[in-house]
């Protein structure tokens, strides 16, 4: 039974037969909801439900895009069209059952509405590939998890650069890494932060223990630290790298860069919270105090996707002594709440002189960062962010940073970010002192 559940959870929602079958089932469900024989239903109930769905969706669009402006990027119109279909399906459930008040009609109608909603969700997921598998959509993963008290300190440690030159994998080394959940206290920042998810590679469990480098990784907005594991396949990527390097890989601390979902504190110290202090002071301090890792800043990097990519660059430019290495994947060229005025008002109380001090596009141009290095990754089809990432790459290069730009197939989604991390890991390993 467990094996069967595992296989179901690993079914792809982006490729293969499932993302084809689910929309087809949704079409069948839609046909059942729209075309009963009763004329009164077709002439009264159905038009009213469709009109109500259209009105509610337009109201949602205006609220999200014009009033609330929850997300800095507009949501595609195709998504709102799919939402309208889902709303209409829900509104048609009761009228459709009343056409023929039987148990059979009720069951089929409920299943038809569910099929439509699943098809809508599948369509949105294909538009924004956030859930690559059934397990990811249901919040199921097969990652081994442990508690902090299961990590005894080692009396003997191994250090060196590159670490591979002084490391020999002992017998009995685990085949894969493990994940630990930990609350990183906001001692200096005072913000409300969610728990961090920490990947520990196989070599971390060896005795003597090699002092591994650290990658602080950030999710997008909206997002959670868990996204990198459920959607980004972080464990699989790091385990694959570790197998090719005798169990060695960075310790990855996926920290909370927003404090909630949805939330957008812009990854800086402002009226919205001292997020920069949390990520540049609290997270490194806790990591050094609780994990046996390489404390040398040269062995530390920060990276992220979308909001997290911008955040990584902000931290690299504002705190180069903490994070001299960064990975910016599809990050906007400035922190934003949708537009410059809204950002200035919310974060800085209308002080128009404040944003440039937090804008990574401006910072590299006025400073020198000869000791800093970074990688920019963006999807080839990411029409909105590819120009911004390329602009940031050239600005960082002009500031003296050792930077690289990688354009991979895809848009603004985990398909790009997972590939980007996998491809950049060898460079990171060399930069952070694992490989020569």
UniProtKB/TrEMBL annotation:
Keywords: Membrane, Transmembrane, Transmembrane helix. It holds the Pfam family Esterase. The chain crosses the membrane at residues 16-35, 44-63, 75-94, 103-124. Gene3D superfamilies: alpha/beta hydrolase (3.40.50.1820). It comes from the Bacteria. InterPro entries: AB_hydrolase_fold (IPR029058), Esterase-like (IPR000801), Mycobacterial_A85_antigen (IPR050583). This is Esterase. It comes from Nocardia rhizosphaerihabitans.
């Amino acid at each position: 039974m467990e094996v069967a559940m595992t296989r179901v959870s690993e079914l792809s929602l982006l490729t293969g037969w499932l993302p084809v079958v689910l929309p087809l089932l949704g079409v069948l469900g839609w046909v059942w909801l729209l075309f009963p024989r009763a004329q009164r239903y077709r002439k009264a109930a159905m038009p009213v439900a469709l009109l109500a769905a259209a009105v509610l969706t337009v109201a949602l669009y205006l609220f999200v895009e014009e009033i609330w402006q929850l997300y800095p990027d507009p949501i595609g119109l195709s998504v709102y069209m799919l939402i309208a279909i889902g709303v209409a399906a829900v509104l048609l459930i009761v009228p459709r059952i009343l056409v023929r008040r039987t148990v059979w009609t009720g069951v089929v109608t409920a299943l038809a509405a569910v099929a439509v909603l699943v098809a809508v969700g599948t369509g949105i997921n294909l538009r924004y590939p956030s859930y690559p598998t059934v397990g990811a959509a249901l919040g199921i993963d097969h990652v081994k998890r442990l508690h902090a008290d299961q990590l005894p300190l080692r009396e003997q440690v191994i250090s060196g650069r590159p670490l591979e030159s002084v490391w020999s994998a002992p017998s009995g080394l685990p085949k894969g890494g493990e994940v630990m959940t930990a609350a990183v206290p906001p001692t200096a920042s005072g913000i409300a932060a969610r728990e961090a998810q920490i990947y520990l590679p196989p070599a971390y469990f060896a005795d003597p223990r090699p002092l591994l480098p650290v990658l602080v990784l950030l999710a997008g907005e909206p997002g959670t630290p868990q996204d990198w594991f459920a959607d980004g396949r972080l464990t699989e990527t790091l385990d694959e790298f570790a197998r090719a390097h005798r169990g060695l890989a960075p310790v990855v601390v996926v920290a909370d860069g927003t404090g909630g979902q949805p939330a957008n504190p812009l990854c800086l110290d402002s009226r919205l919270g001292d997020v920069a202090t949390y990520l540049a002071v609290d997270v490194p301090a806790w990591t050094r105090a609780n994990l046996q890792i390489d404390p040398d800043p040269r062995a530390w990097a920060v990276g992220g996707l979308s909001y997290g990519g911008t955040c990584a660059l902000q931290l690299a430019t504002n705190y180069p002594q903490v994070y001299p290495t960064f990975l910016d994947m599809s990050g906007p060229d400035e922190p934003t709440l949708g537009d410059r005025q809204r950002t200035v008002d919310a974060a800085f109380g209308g002080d128009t002189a404040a944003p440039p001090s937090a804008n990574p596009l401006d910072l590299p141009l006025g400073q020198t960062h000869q000791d800093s290095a970074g990688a920019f990754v963006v999807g080839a089809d990411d029409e909105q962010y590819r120009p911004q990432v390329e602009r940031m790459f050239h600005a960082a290069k002009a500031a003296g940073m050792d930077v690289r730009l990688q354009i991979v197939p895809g848009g603004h989604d985990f398909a790009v970010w997972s590939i980007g991390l996998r491809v950049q890991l060898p460079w990171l390993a060399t930069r952070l002192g694992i490989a020569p």
